[in-house]
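Our working data are protein records whose layout never changes between entries. Instead of coordinates, the fold is spelled out as a row of discrete tokens. Here is such a record, shown just as it appears in the course material:
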Amino acid sequence: MWLFAVTHLDTLLVIDAFCADNDYRLWEVLVGHYVGFCVGLAAAVVGAILAAELLQKWTFLLGVVPLSLGLWGLLRQPPETTVEESPIVPNPLGRISVVTVGTGPQRRKHRCLRPVFR
């Protein structure tokens, strides 16, 4: 239990920041967080089944996709970027989506938990 709590402190801080913002209602933050958690869990289960059953020989190539996307984005980035003030998300569904992406699945937590469950 303590390992789960320690690896999720950052998520709790993000949820706290969303709750402190007056633009977000508590139910929007909670629904967004749990939708993100469930989507991440479902994706992990489907990915594990695919990797174990169908793509066992090709699983090592799965790291190439995020690496190539990151490098592509880095190379396409303009030299000077200005930060513009983002507009406030007007409707509850949009705010729930923002919380879902902000608190959703984070792969680095799996790196901490994987050795425990082997």
Residues 34-56+90-118 form one domain.
